């Protein structure tokens, strides 16, 4: 008899490098759970299909980091707000800019699309909330009342209300028709990071940095319950589609809550760090988190999670027995939203107006077209998602298959699961079980799932300079999951297709790098080394800086004191890079500077002040002070890395000894 396969309750799906610089915001498409949009410090908005490695589309036009992004319900439009206060709306199917909205005086912290009309709400660091009409390209109304940055905005399911959360510890509810505040919900003792409407009932949930989640009755305008004891600030919450429970994305865990009375039904350990957004599709919860330029996605199998009924854990430490079951969503205690007819749900008027306006565009629209572009990075995925052959089946397919769950790392847990003792997940254990001895982990007796996306290994902290395989490609991805001779040709075709997907992107990267190096070379030929280094730094591409330093390091006589003032901040960046070759170049340059200039710098700084005015000496003293300050900053970094093993540790220990005189 075949041994039943135990699959994971939660697992890491993939990790991608989403931007050339740090990721500053991201959002999941709630309708499909398969579309991901990321905003970065590189002023771009990139679109991804979950569990696919390549960017579908890259949207440009912003001139400052993108602080907030949001997709509309049908996932046809995307809005992005920048640090400068500008807002841009793109039509994803047409692959072009739709609107540029100006008016906020500070960075955009929150955005949301109206569920049925062509409106966008924006919240800013300037404490204002603005309602924009996409068709008219103007601000319809401005809502004032918060005293600090507005961190989250959500329209009610019927589109009549707008909820706002801010750093001033309050949640406010606005009546869109009357254009005024309906109610204010005080109670939080820290900044409120997120609000969510119940999908059916007049109920609002809010999560705060005070580590509490509060539920608000929108008929009586009072608190229903408060869940305390969250492990950290609450940043991501999501109601189940049928409204039976609330999910909270905590630090390295997912918690499932009920609110009348307040109870925790289940806790699932997920090693996702600080999760940034949640979505549900095919009875799976998708969570995404970002760190620096990387974005990671995770999956939780909700069929294995307790979502109602008996209590798994009580975070409010209430010793009272659970007298009654939470009300079934089919019989709610509160009023239910009255949604308008679904015939109004498609933003057709946006497209019609945008097309008519493009036939007779204004000069401002022309400028938007020139400044903003939608660069399709992967035509195959773009056509699959935004240009489907069957117009009824929309982006991405609503009936997409669930992500296959990988088997447990330790298959011995299958035997343990048959025992009457509480079952736990080998990698993601549930800390408590329901009263009565029922196991929270059931053994699914189904054949092993063949998947081409095994749980990825942790990415190394440093990419070695000499390696046997390219970054981002794994040999296992090009091998058949099941050995069937007839499929050998198909696997080869898939492999070639996978290689071709990144070819255009790589060509663009190399062309850009060649152009940048050509610019630096043009300055270098004039004989001005300092200016050529300045031009390389101004390009803001570390790869160009590394190429130039590798040349300068070959001839120590090229180094001058004023060159050190420019290079030292770049060396600090190189020493923190995840690429070994960058770290090696940074260590070599720093060693040359320390050997040639550190004694000179310390002697000049220790010398008594000169009598009279010596301009050249004053300039030299200023450069020495600047270099000394930069070296002190690098010194702490070198000291922290001197404990590493191998070649890296040896290089940093040598640098630490050379920098001993700075202490």
TrEMBL record:
WD repeats lie at residues 16-58, 59-100, 101-142, 143-184, 185-226. Residues 501-659 form the Katanin p80 subunit C-terminal domain. Signal peptide: none annotated. It is found in: Cytoplasm, Cytoskeleton, Spindle; Cytoplasm; Cytoplasm, Cytoskeleton, Microtubule organizing center, Centrosome; Cytoplasm, Cytoskeleton, Spindle pole. SUPFAM superfamilies: WD40 repeat-like. Residues 311-434 are annotated as: Disordered. GO terms for cellular component: centrosome; cytoplasm; katanin complex; microtubule; spindle pole. The keyword Ubl conjugation does not apply. Its main location: cytoplasm. Pfam families: Katanin_con80, WD40. GO terms for molecular function: microtubule binding. Residues 340-351 have a biased composition (Polar residues). Coiled coil: none annotated. InterPro entries: Katanin_C-terminal, KTNB1, WD40/YVTN_repeat-like_dom_sf, WD40_PAC1, WD40_repeat_CS, WD40_repeat_dom_sf, WD40_rpt. GO terms for biological process: cell division; microtubule depolymerization; microtubule severing; mitotic chromosome movement towards spindle pole; positive regulation of microtubule depolymerization. Keywords: Cell cycle, Cell division, Cytoplasm, Cytoskeleton, Microtubule, Mitosis, Phosphoprotein, Repeat, WD repeat. Belongs to the WD repeat KATNB1 family. HAMAP family: Katanin_p80_B1 (MF_03022). Participates in a complex which severs microtubules in an ATP-dependent manner. May act to target the enzymatic subunit of this complex to sites of action such as the centrosome. Microtubule severing may promote rapid reorganization of cellular microtubule arrays and the release of microtubules from the centrosome following nucleation. Microtubule release from the mitotic spindle poles may allow depolymerization of the microtubule end proximal to the spindle pole, leading to poleward microtubule flux and poleward motion of chromosome. This is Katanin p80 WD40 repeat-containing subunit B1.
């Amino acid at each position: 008899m075949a041994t039943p396969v135990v699959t994971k309750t939660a697992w890491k799906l993939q990790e991608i490098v989403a931007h050339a610089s740090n990721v500053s915001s991201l959002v999941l498409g709630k309708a499909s759970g398969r579309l991901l949009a990321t905003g970065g410090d590189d002023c771009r908005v990139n679109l991804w299909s979950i569990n696919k490695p390549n960017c579908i589309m890259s949207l440009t036009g912003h001139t400052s980091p993108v602080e907030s992004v949001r997709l509309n319900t049908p996932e046809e439009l995307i809005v992005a707000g920048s640090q400068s206060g500008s807002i841009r709306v793109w039509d994803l199917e047409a692959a072009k800019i739709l609107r540029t909205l100006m008016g906020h005086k500070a960075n955009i912290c929150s955005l949301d699309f109206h569920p049925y009309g062509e409106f966008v709400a924006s919240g800013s660091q300037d404490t204002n909330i603005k309602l924009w009409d996409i068709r008219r390209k103007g601000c319809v109304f401005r809502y004032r009342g918060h005293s600090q940055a507005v961190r989250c905005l959500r329209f009610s399911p019927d589109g009549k209300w707008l909820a706002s959360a801010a750093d001033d510890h309050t949640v406010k509810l606005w009546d869109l028709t009357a254009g005024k505040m309906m109610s204010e919900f005080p109670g939080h003792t820290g900044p409120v990071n997120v609000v969510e409407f119940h999908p059916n009932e007049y109920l609002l949930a809010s999560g705060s940095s005070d580590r509490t989640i509060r539920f608000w009755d929108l008929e009586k305008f009072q608190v229903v319950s408060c869940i305390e004891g969250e492990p950290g600030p609450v940043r991501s919450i999501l109601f189940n589609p049928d409204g039976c429970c609330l999910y909270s994305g905590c630090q390295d865990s997912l918690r499932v809550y009920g609110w009348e009375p307040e109870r925790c039904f289940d806790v699932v350990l997920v090693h996702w760090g600080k999760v940034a957004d949640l979505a549900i599709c095919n009875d799976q919860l998708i969570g995404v988190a970002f760190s620096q330029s990387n974005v990671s996605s995770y999956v939780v199998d909700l069929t294995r999670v307790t979502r109602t009924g008996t209590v798994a854990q009580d975070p409010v430490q209430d010793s009272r027995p659970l007298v009654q079951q939470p009300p079934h969503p089919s019989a709610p205690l509160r009023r239910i939203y009255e949604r308008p007819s679904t015939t109004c749900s498609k933003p057709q008027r946006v497209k019609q107006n945008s097309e008519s306006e493009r036939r007779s565009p204004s000069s401002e629209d022309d400028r938007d077209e020139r400044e903003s572009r939608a660069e399709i990075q992967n035509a195959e995925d773009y056509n699959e998602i935004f240009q489907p052959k069957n117009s009824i089946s929309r982006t991405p397919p609503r009936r997409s298959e669930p992500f296959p769950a990988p088997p447990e790392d330790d298959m011995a847990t299958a035997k343990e699961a048959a025992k009457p003792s509480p079952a736990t997940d080998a990698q993601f254990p549930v800390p408590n079980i329901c009263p009565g001895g029922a196991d929270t982990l059931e053994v699914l007796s189904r054949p092993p799932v063949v998947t081409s996306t095994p749980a990825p290994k942790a990415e190394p902290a440093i990419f070695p300079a000499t390696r046997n395989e390219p970054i981002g490609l794994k040999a296992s991805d090009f091998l058949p999951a099941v050995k069937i001779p007839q499929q050998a040709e198909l696997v080869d075709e898939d492999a070639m297709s996978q290689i071709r997907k990144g070819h255009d992107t790589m060509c663009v990267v190399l062309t850009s790098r060649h152009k940048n190096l050509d610019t630096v070379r043009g300055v270098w030929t004039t004989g001005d080394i300092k200016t050529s280094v300045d031009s390389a730094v101004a390009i803001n591409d570390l790869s160009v800086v590394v190429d130039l330093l590798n040349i300068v390091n070959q001839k120590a006589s090229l180094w001058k004191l004023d060159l050190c003032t420019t290079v030292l901040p770049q060396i600090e960046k190189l020493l923190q890079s995840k690429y070994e070759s960058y770290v090696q170049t940074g260590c070599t340059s720093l060693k040359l500077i320390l050997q040639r200039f550190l004694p000179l710098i310390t002697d000049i700084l220790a010398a008594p002040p000169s009598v009279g005015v010596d301009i050249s000496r004053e300039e030299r003293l200023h450069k020495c002070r600047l270099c000394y300050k930069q070296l002190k900053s690098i010194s702490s970094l070198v000291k922290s890395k001197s404990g590493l093993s191998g070649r890296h540790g040896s290089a940093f220990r040598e640098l630490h000894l050379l920098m001993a005189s700075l202490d």
